[in-house]
User: Fold this.
Amino acid sequence: MDNLSNIALIAQMIESAERNIQSAKQLLREIMGGKIPDGSEFAKKAQVLSVSEGGKVIEGVFDGQNMVGPDGKQYPVPANYASKSKLVEGDVLKLTIAEDGSFIYKQIGPIERRKILGTLTSDEKGEYKVVAEGKTYKVLLASLTYFKAEPGDQVTVVLPKDKEAAWGAVENVLKAGESADTQLITRNQSSDETELEEL
Assistant:
């Protein structure tokens, strides 16, 4: 992709994020009767965590998309890392900022998890969500892309065991119209092919 395409994509992502934040604030206002509480639960949990080595190592709490540091600041967690690690809301992470400025994350405090099965849906804005047990959960696009998931597919979502969550981590996808046995055979063949390509 050229620079103009990248800039346009980044602008769309920022616009989408701002809309999501506004919608979330509006929903929170409605639930709280017009008041937004000071600081999120993630910021409160992160306050007891540490920042050391002149700000080069920061501990924080994963909120579904970002790591919230002890100061309430959000640090972007790469979607591929969050997807591969199946991070869930409330997991404690350690961020090391390398000499070259790159961010290196490590999961240091996973919380207890539970898994549920739901159906992947897409709204008019093209945003994907999983509907399970009468609730709707946001999921990272990177996970859905990896599994080549499409609306109507059955998705296993990982959630915090003892708390409500807005975000879920994708564990697996069962394509609509295929049996679990067919899925397993197809997935095993793909991993065998990938291993052969690497050799």
About this structure: The chain has five helices and eleven strands. The longest strand covers residues 113-122.
